[in-house]
Design goal:
474 residues, mainly alpha, three-stranded antiparallel sheet, two-stranded antiparallel sheet
């Protein structure tokens, strides 16, 4: 470079060339040293609903701040609310039976979390991944807490009915959907011992190695438990020990109306959960149970797939991007997107399952690739176009007085939906290295690096406001 400076000084032709070279180097370096300047946004106050409803004077919109006070009321009061229309439920004092001898304030944190996760406008949309796992965990925690005053690990049927009714009433008074018992298939019998022969602490501790059980489940590793389980086998072993049975799938000898081996094992597993809740703190037990639930729900696709006859007909013989095929495929997937929020791992299973249905119908070409179908296309769409997948780890719905209900979306990059290699998915394993999710952003990673998770938080009332306004304008 010094030679070039000298050449510029002493030789005009060469200097002209070096001069251009230096300008080029400076121009290139500007791409590495450039700093993105923050955009200054001027927020405009909305003085009244009348002003807010006025037609815009420009087609360019600045971002606006929306508070609950200015969110428009649903314009059709005689009809039921859309499943995701933003609401801000009011808390009220529940009407209790008075026959459940429990001070619910002791487990108030678990009750509040469950009420938020099963909130009125979102319970059906997050039931499989968030609401029902948390409700199940709450029942385990309540069952263990109830037994602290006695040596019982379960509730008697009459008391279970009253306590279950009070639990649902309290949750509803805090904003939860009253239909969650049917949504999550839980009932008062979940608080009883069912067909499990052991329901007291003394007998339980005689039959079960409780030290081994608690060592395995007091701290459940969220990253390892689902693929290299430690707590789950310990719970199953304890359930088998107190059931007095060896596990078998042969139920042919069961008398009609009598509990099967599976029923007995499941009832005894609830007794084991109750014992764990008795020994751990409410928060520690809730964390453990939610992780175990995540391992279970992430193994199955919760979406309902109707027979894709039109997609098969339009895509059977395509080998290149086809407007009719992609239109049919996108139309089918648009129906799927109205069902529920799912996790990134569930999306892999769902995409593989649907692809297998197409292959079975004769679609051999990877139409996901031809039509640009991503994993996030199988879940609820935010802003009408951005798919939201939840993390495979346990997550919660968050309620804030200013933003309403929100949840954290994951997998913001466009990861292509996997096309199955055959019409069978029996060999699919999310624990195999080749099925690992590429570069999933995590809150811990971004927090440690000092970066904010831009674009991952979707405040429900805000983005739904834009969806509803767009629908009214057009």
């Amino acid at each position: 470079m010094m030679d070039c400076f000298h050449t510029v000084s002493y030789s005009y032709p060469n200097g002209n060339m070096c001069h251009r070279l230096l300008l080029f180097v400076i121009w290139i370096s500007s791409f590495h040293d450039g700093v993105a300047l923050p955009t200054v946004v001027k927020h405009h106050l909305v003085s009244s609903m009348r002003e807010q409803a006025q037609s815009p004077s420009s087609v360019v919109f600045d971002p606006i701040e929306i508070s609950p006070a200015v969110i428009p009321q649903y314009p059709y009061p005689n009809e039921s609310l859309p499943p995701m229309y933003p609401t801000f439920p009011t808390r009220y004092d529940p009407v209790l039976t008075g026959r459940c001898p429990v001070n619910f304030s002791v487990i108030s944190n678990a009750m509040d979390k469950t009420a938020s996760d099963c909130s009125q406008p979102m319970a059906a949309l997050v039931g499989n991944v968030i609401c029902c796992p948390q409700l199940s965990s709450l029942l385990h925690i309540f069952q263990g807490f109830y037994g602290l005053t006695s040596d019982r690990l379960v509730l008697q049927e009459a008391v279970a009915n009253d306590c279950f009714s009070d639990i649902i009433s309290i949750l509803a008074s805090r904003g939860a959907n009253q239909t969650i018992p049917s949504l999550c298939s839980v009932k008062s019998s979940n608080l009883t011992g069912g067909s499990c022969p052991v329901t007291d602490v003394v007998t339980f501790e005689k039959l079960v190695n409780v030290s081994k059980l608690l060592d395995a489940c007091d701290t459940v590793d969220p990253l390892k438990e689902c693929c290299r389980p430690i707590c789950q086998p310990a719970i199953m072993e304890a359930a088998l020990q107190i059931s007095g049975r060896q596990f078998t799938t042969d139920t042919s000898s069961n008398v009609a109306g009598q509990p099967t081996h599976i029923d007995s094992i499941n009832d005894c597993k609830r007794v084991v959960y109750s014992y764990i809740s008795r020994k751990l703190s409410s928060d520690a037990a809730n964390t453990a149970f939610r992780i175990l639930s995540s391992c279970k729900v992430n193994k199955v696709c919760p979406l309902d797939f109707e027979q894709p006859s039109e997609v098969i007909k339009d895509c059977r013989n395509v080998a290149a991007p086809s407007p009719s095929c992609c239109s049919s495929l996108n139309s089918y997937i648009a129906g799927i997107q109205k069902q529920m929020l799912i996790t990134n791992k569930q999306a892999i299973i769902c995409a593989t399952m649907f692809g297998s249905m197409l292959r079975k119908g004769g679609v051999m070409t990877n139409v996901y690739e031809l039509c640009d179908v991503d994993l996030k296309d199988f879940s609820i769409q935010a802003y009408g176009q951005q798919g939201c997948l939840l993390r495979s780890l346990p997550s919660d719905v968050v309620f804030d007085n200013s933003t309403g209900f929100s949840f954290t979306c994951d997998l913001t990059d466009n990861i292509a939906a996997p096309w199955p290699s055959s019409s069978s998915i029996s060999t699919l394993s999310l624990c195999a290295p080749e099925m690992s999710l590429p570069a999933l952003p995590t809150s811990e990673t971004r927090r440690n690096s000092g970066q904010r998770e831009e674009g991952l938080d979707f405040p429900m009332p805000i983005f739904l406001f834009f969806i509803m306004v767009s629908a009214f304008l057009y």
